[in-house]
Design goal:
Layout lengths: L1 E3 L4 H14 L3 E4 L15 E4 L6 E5 L4 E5 L4 H10 L2 E2 L8 H4 L7 H7 L6 H4 L2 H4 E7 L5 E5 L11 H5 L8 E8 L1 E2 L3 E8 L3 H12 L5 E7 L8 E8 L1 H14 L7 E4 H12 L10 E7 L4 H11 L2 E6 L4 E6 L7 H8 L3 E7 L2 H6 L8 H14 L15
Helix pairs in contact: 11-12
């Protein structure tokens, strides 16, 4: 299988134009760390962004950074850290969960809309993505957005590309808004709560004026004893005040411990990167629902098949592990969610991912829109064919 690795956008235009003329189907990759997400590849060659590297713009005073799509995420984060800044959405690293190697790239973060626990406060990756450059399936270079936040008229290609998983275009450059690194970060940890009480505590904290930037619950046995984590960030006097106020607010749930430094950072890495489910042979589901429904949805799955789970986003994100046999619980998971959420099969054997919908099935009207967008941007169906939905 051929591997194409353009070193410039112009070279990518040429390569994709030639592939279009041959109708050669392409697997679009960055660092390859998330290659196992989605339906199995139906491609004939690989188009890699790893030759497109380098930070092209960094304006700390304007809170904006731009980089070529193949730039390692670690390089972008290191440059931001040197300026005491960060990506607001805390992108997940899938390597431990998927057992993959390589380096995550900033373009893949945009393409997958990859976010983490801070999404409840800072939004998703797409909310910070303000500009993209990409090559469409006709071999045309396209620029959308810019280097400032602004209203958009017409089709917002920036948001369209975020979460398209490389099915609409080959990203060559991305631009993100960034935020200052908080002066201090502290986490309140409540011990021993059951799931219903944990969600109640997280909802109370998130509904308070005390600006929670992380709210997760790990039931007993997932990563040791049951613990509920609530993160607060900001200037140190403000953090002290909010810690005290939250402790009083949550007194009915027990007296929380305050953890900081590497202990707290490790706890949030565990949540962000789904480390309790790394290194097993289970299928892994990512369920998004209303926070108050999280425990009931997980319990409904467990009533039909053995499962383990934990909660992020105040209970609105359920990471669930179950046996990878049969349909890996697809029918059970989606029946438990009903119309009140969506489910993505993040990890499963290739045969399972070929047989069941990996991403949330679309209604007929939404599928028509999705097919129309695919036809408009990639008329020959070159890019990641079938990765998100069969036939697209």
């Amino acid at each position: 299988m051929s591997i194409y690795q353009p070193r410039s956008e112009a070279e990518a235009v040429t390569l994709i134009g030639e592939a279009a003329a041959r109708r050669e189907r392409l697997r679009l990759v960055g660092g390859g760390t998330r290659a196992g997400i989605g339906r199995p590849a139906q491609d004939e060659a690989t188009l890699s962004a790893t030759g497109l590297t380098g930070i092209t713009l960094y304006e700390p005073a304007e809170l904006v950074i731009a980089a070529r799509a193949g730039t390692p995420l670690a390089e972008v984060e290191a440059r931001l850290a040197a300026g005491r800044q960060m990506l607001p959405f805390e992108p997940m690293d899938h390597r431990a969960l998927l057992g993959s190697a390589g380096e995550p790239t900033i373009g893949a973060v945009a393409a997958g809309n990859i976010s983490g626990p801070r999404r409840i406060a800072g939004g998703a990756a797409r909310d910070s993505l303000i500009g993209v450059r990409f090559v469409n399936g006709r071999g045309e270079a396209v620029k959308s957005g810019g280097r400032v936040m602004k209203n958009v008229t017409g089709l917002d290609l920036v948001k369209l590309m975020a979460g398209s998983w490389g099915t609409l275009g080959f990203l060559t450059e991305v631009t993100f808004k960034v935020l200052p690194v908080p002066e201090r970060t502290a986490t309140l940890a409540l011990a021993g709560l059951d799931e219903a009480r944990a969600v109640e505590a997280m909802s109370l904290a998130l509904g308070s004026p005390f600006e929670i930037t992380g709210a997760a619950h790990l039931p007993e046995g997932i990563d040791g004893p049951a613990r509920t984590l609530l993160r607060i960030e900001g200037f140190s006097p403000s953090v002290d005040y909010r810690l005290g106020q939250l402790t009083r607010l949550l007194r009915g749930f027990g007296r929380p411990a305050t953890i900081e430094g590497e202990t707290a950072a490790a706890a949030w890495r565990t949540v962000r990167n789904v480390l309790p489910f790394a290194g097993t042979d289970e299928a892994i589901w990512r369920l998004s629902t209303a926070p108050g429904r999280g425990p009931a949805v997980a319990a409904a799955v467990a009533a039909a098949r053995p499962a383990r789970w934990f909660f992020d986003w105040g209970g609105g994100l359920v990471w669930l592990a179950t046996a990878a046999t049969g349909d890996a619980g697809a029918a059970t998971v989606r029946a438990a969610l009903g119309s009140g959420g969506h489910a993505t099969l993040v990890r499963a054997p290739e045969a399972v991912r070929a047989a069941v919908p990996v991403f949330e099935p679309l209604s007929e009207p939404l599928m028509r829109i999705t097919a129309g967008l695919k036809a408009a941007h990639d008329p020959a169906g070159l890019f990641n064919p079938g990765r998100m939905y069969a036939g697209l």
